[in-house]
Amino acid sequence: MQRGAGICAIKSDARRELAAGTFIKWLTEPKQNLRFTVPLGYLPVTEAAMAGLMTEGAQYMNSVNIRKLYETIAEMRSGYNFYFPAVFDGLEGLQTSYNAALRKAAVDARTEYLALLGSMDKSSAYESVSEGALVRFIAEQMKK
Description:
This protein is an all-alpha fold. 62% of the residues lie in helices and 0% in strands. The chain contains seven helices and no strands. The mean pLDDT is 89.
């Protein structure tokens, strides 16, 4: 699971709460949101801003890598179905556990790959390590 930065306002007096709400409303307007998020590599926070990512947002793509990132995002949005988990008690712990297990699986696979490089070429080592890796990872998670 990937999460980005967040903005919050704490309880205050009416004048400051109104100012905070006005600022957040302004920041999430498509033009402002693109100006803020795109140079940093963040995702826009509204569908309207996302729709303008490759057009209005292009002027803020200040590097080749940022442009590639957003081209990939645009391609993924058109060809993939995204899963948004329901929020429930214990979700954060579940996500933390899953992230730790995924990181461990990646580290273990890299260690195995590097060890195999002593006895086989890169492509064969990669195939050996990656063959069935996702299925094994999912099976391990289902045991928990």
